[in-house]
């Protein structure tokens, strides 16, 4: 296990347990998820109970304990997207791939995140795949977009749009 | 564009005089024949590829820049949200403020050749007034813009958010210099009080009162009173359908910082925090850059502008929990804990972050502060109503023609916002309701469209101002379903600490689910009202206390719709699956067979070129035929 990384991240914030969330965000940025070993180490270094670290992990929706898929699919479930049919898109994807929102397909092709609002209401319903925005999505067009994904990681995101990637970081 | 030197070079400014000298220097640099291309990189435009447009304009500017023989200087700038997201990407050319909409990559060369170099207008990219059908050139001629009054968004779309020089050149940091140079902290609080500024995050609490309480507070918590005070900018904009704060943080980050620094001086805080929602990486990037620049200019750090005042700001990213928009939950999150609110018998202005007196205001509130100090409280207070002064930024979304970001004077009617600025309901449908205040707010029906937008008036109507989401709903929207949506949202976002909220919302949601699936009972409406009262009385924080608002306001104005679901098992808006049926209009049906081929359960029969029929006994109401029919012959009844 990479002990030094945990220590290094903790030192970025001068070992202040109040900065637990930024530390965990940094850790997740390194691995794409929060490995249990590293979280244990972090609790030890910070001298905080592991229950607190675990509680924080479970409370905030951006933290995940399992690795994500090769692609990141974010489906906006905000009010406007909802009015314009987002629930049916979510249903269609979940049914087709046998997953739940927040889950990853068994072949690790993609992780589906249903988020509250990405603030791009003019484009509703919106789906973001690896940072690329798709507007006016329908259940059919969503399945078509996902059907074209290949197992290679985060492919077709233009550099410019990727900085606006909702969900995790 | 921010140059590398601008971001890193130290250029400490020690006084108002030095700031003015620096501004004059910038003004001289700006040559008379500078032509500027402003490309919007707000969320809507960026999603439609405006970053690429910006790059193309930069390349074009670079190519013609040197050796074009003339003394024309061409600059391409990326700017924050311009507002008219519906017609993005927006590109504005100066001089002349010529606005082009729906610009695509192939248009760049033409815009550059014709407008930037040639000074001619590209007609086809201009905005066309839907009423007069006339093409107009500038934002001032477009109803979407000219009904607005922009104070907070004044510089959005004009300045490059990554350039502190841009901000300084439009009088940025002058209010700070004025405050630190010639005002006592109490004077500032007095000014904010006289301006009548109320919190823009939703509650509408008088900002000056909060500041004064904090300034006068002695630590009452467990912490010793050592004079430490904190200041927080709440950028955890969680309401779905709301992107005002995001646009301000992305489009004019220095405006937020300047407001915070003035506020910190007024209350005597030395450390500030900006808590930004996790889904807003660009806001974080721009704010980080702005903080670095402000430090380099001596607007943050020790001895700000030679006044002896010390203050610094750090950014924390949220973890993706809606409840963290609540002040005590946000502070818990800043302390590295789960974001659970606490009871507020001791106010956070006395014992907030780390047990110290803390002022927390929303992004838009902070962004109003420099304007108040700059223009003076009386001018600020001349805008608005008796109880609500200044302007409010809204994200106008939903079934509306002009989706976008708007800033209006308080007191304007909902009708003017929706009809004049928003251009009315989309696709000629009938207006049904407008939802304000996010999940804590309510729906306002057509008969109250002439109500004034004002903190107290919206509360009186059973909704609230909220942080500024304004969602327009048309005749096809089922109000029971809307209430169900918000309750579903709140159920998953309730932190679970207090029982009324955790259990009450789940129960209300279960009842709504029953009603929308045709299993509602007549007593359900009473049950909802009892639960609503219980939540209002018993919940720990505003999330629970207001959770019933979406139900109560829809019950108040659309009770008949609930009753129709319960009694007749029918959804009048034809949205709730199973509570309406699909039929084929024999007049419109051409017998093309598309619906028959696509029906997954073979419920549709009919001869070729003859009207088809749906067998109601087989139909699963999957909506496929409705989507597939090219002639609109499928009816929901």
Question: In short, what is this structure?
Answer:
Chain A has 2 domains: 3-59, no CATH class; 71-162, 3-Layer(aba) Sandwich (Glutaredoxin). Chain A is 43% helix and 11% strand. Chain A is built from 8 helices and 4 strands.
Task: Give a quick set of tags describing it.
heterodimer, A: 169 residues, alpha+beta, Glutaredoxin, 4-stranded mixed β-sheet, 8 helices, 11% strand, elongated, disordered C terminus, B: 637 residues, alpha/beta, Rossmann fold, Ubiquitin-like (UB roll), 5 domains, 5-stranded mixed β-sheet, 25 helices, 19 strands, disordered N terminus
Task: Provide a descriptive summary of the structure in words.
The complex is a heterodimer of chains A (169) and B (637). With 169 residues, chain A is of the alpha+beta class. Chain A has 2 domains: 3-59, no CATH class; 71-162, Glutaredoxin (3-Layer(aba) Sandwich). Chain A has helices at residues 3-12, 20-31, 36-46, 50-59, 79-83, 86-97, 139-147, 159-162; strands spanning 71-76, 110-115, 127-129, 132-134. A 4-stranded mixed sheet of chain A has the order 2-1-3-4, covered by helices on one side. In chain A, strand 3 (127-129) and strand 4 form a beta hairpin. Chain A is elongated. With 637 residues, chain B is α/β, with parallel strands linked by helices. Chain B has 5 domains: 31-142, Glutaredoxin (3-Layer(aba) Sandwich), CATH 3.40.30; 164-381, NADH-ubiquinone oxidoreductase 51kDa subunit (Rossmann fold); 391-474, Ubiquitin-like (UB roll), CATH 3.10.20; 479-567, de novo design (two linked rop proteins); 582-636, Alpha-Beta Plaits. Chain B has 25 helices and 19 strands. A 5-stranded mixed sheet of chain B has the order 12-11-15-13-14. In chain B, strands 2-1-3-4 form a 4-stranded mixed sheet, with helices on one face. Chain B has a 4-stranded parallel sheet with strand order 9-8-7-10, with helices on both faces. Residues 1-5 of chain B have low confidence and may be disordered. The interface between A and B is large, with 47 and 60 residues.
């Amino acid at each position: 296990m990479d002990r030094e990384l945990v220590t290094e991240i903790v030192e970025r914030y001068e070992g202040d347990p109040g900065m637990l969330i930024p530390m965990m965000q940094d850790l997740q940025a390194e691995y794409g998820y929060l490995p249990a070993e590293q979280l244990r180490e972090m609790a030890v270094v910070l001298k905080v109970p592991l229950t607190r670290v675990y509680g924080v992990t479970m409370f905030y929706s951006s933290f995940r304990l399992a690795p994500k898929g090769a692609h990141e699919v974010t489906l906006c479930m905000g009010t406007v997207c909802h009015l314009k049919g987002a629930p049916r898109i979510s249903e269609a994807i979940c049914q087709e791939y046998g997953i739940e929102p927040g889950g990853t397909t068994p072949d690790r092709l993609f992780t589906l995140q249903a988020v509250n609002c990405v603030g791009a209401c003019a484009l509703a319903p919106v789906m973001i795949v690896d940072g690329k925005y798709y507007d006016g999505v329908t259940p059919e067009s969503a399945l078509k977009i996902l059907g074209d994904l290949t197992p290679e990681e985060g492919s077709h995101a233009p550099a410019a749009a990727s900085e606006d990637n909702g969900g995790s970081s | 564009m921010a140059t590398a030197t601008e971001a890193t070079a130290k250029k400490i400014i020690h006084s108002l005089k030095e700031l003015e000298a620096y501004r004059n220097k910038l003004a001289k640099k700006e040559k008379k024949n500078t032509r500027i291309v402003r490309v919007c990189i707000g969320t809507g435009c960026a999603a439609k590829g405006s970053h690429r447009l910006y790059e193309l304009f930069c390349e074009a500017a670079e190519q013609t820049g040197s050796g074009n023989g003339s003394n024309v200087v061409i600059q391409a700038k990326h700017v924050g949200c311009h507002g008219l997201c519906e017609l993005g990407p927006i590109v504005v050319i100066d001089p002349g403020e010529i606005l082009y909409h729906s610009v695509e990559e192939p248009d760049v060369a033409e815009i550059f050749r014709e407008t930037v170099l040639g000074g001619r207008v590209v007609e086809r990219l201009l905005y066309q007034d839907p009423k007069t059908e006339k093409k107009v050139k500038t934002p001032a001629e477009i109803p979407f813009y000219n009904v607005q009054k922009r104070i907070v968004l004044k510089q959005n779309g004009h300045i490059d958010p990554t350039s502190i020089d841009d901000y300084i050149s439009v009088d940025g940091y002058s209010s700070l210099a004025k405050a630190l140079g010639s005002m006592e902290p109490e004077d500032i609080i007095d000014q904010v009080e006289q301006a009548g500024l109320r919190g823009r995050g939703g509650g509408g609490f008088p900002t000056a009162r909060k500041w004064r309480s904090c300034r006068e507070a002695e630590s009452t918590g467990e912490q010793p009173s050592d004079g430490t005070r904190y200041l927080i900018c709440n950028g955890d904009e969680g309401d779905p359908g709301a992107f005002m704060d995001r646009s301000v943080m992305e489009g004019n980050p220095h405006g937020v910082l300047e407001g915070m620094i003035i506020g910190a001086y007024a209350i005597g805080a030395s450390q500030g925090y900006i808590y930004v929602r996790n889904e807003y990486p660009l806001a974080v990037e721009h704010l980080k850059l702005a903080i670095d620049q402000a430090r380099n200019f001596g607007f943050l750090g020790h001895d700000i502008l030679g006044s002896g005042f010390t203050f610094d700001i750090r950014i924390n990213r949220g973890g993706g929990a809606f409840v963290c928009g609540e002040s005590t939950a946000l502070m818990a999150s800043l302390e590295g804990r789960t974001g659970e609110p606490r009871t507020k018998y001791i106010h956070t202005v006395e014992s907030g972050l780390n047990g110290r007196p803390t002022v927390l205001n929303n992004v838009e509130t902070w962004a109003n502060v420099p304007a108040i100090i700059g223009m003076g409280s009386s001018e600020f207070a001349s805008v608005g109503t008796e109880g609500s002064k200044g302007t409010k930024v809204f994200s106008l979304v939903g079934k509306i023609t002009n989706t976008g970001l708007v800033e209006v004077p308080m007191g304007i009617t909902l009708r003017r916002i929706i009809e004049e600025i928003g251009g009315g309901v989309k696709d000629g449908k009938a207006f049904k309701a407008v939802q304000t205040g996010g999940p804590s707010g309510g729906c306002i029906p057509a008969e109250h469209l002439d109500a004034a937008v004002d903190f107290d008036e919206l509360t009186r109507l059973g909704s609230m101002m909220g942080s500024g989401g304004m969602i327009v709903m048309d005749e096809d929207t089922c109000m029971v379903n809307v209430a169900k949506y918000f309750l579903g949202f709140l159920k998953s976002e309730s932190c679970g600490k207090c029982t009324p909220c955790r259990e009450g919302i789940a129960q209300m949601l279960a009842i709504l689910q029953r009603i929308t699936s045709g299993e509602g009972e007549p007593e359900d409406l009473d049950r909802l009202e009892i639960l609503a009262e219980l939540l209002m009385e018993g919940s720990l924080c505003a999330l629970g206390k207001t959770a019933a608002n979406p139900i109560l306001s829809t019950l108040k104005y659309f009770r008949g719709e609930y009753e129709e679901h319960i009694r007749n098992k029918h959804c009048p808006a034809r949205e709730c699956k199973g509570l309406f049926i699909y039929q084929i209009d024999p007049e419109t049906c051409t017998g093309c067979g598309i619906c028959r081929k696509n029906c997954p359960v073979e419920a549709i029969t009919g001869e070729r070129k003859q009207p088809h029929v749906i067998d109601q006994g087989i139909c699963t109401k999957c909506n496929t035929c409705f989507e597939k029919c090219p002639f609109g012959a499928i009816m929901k009844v």
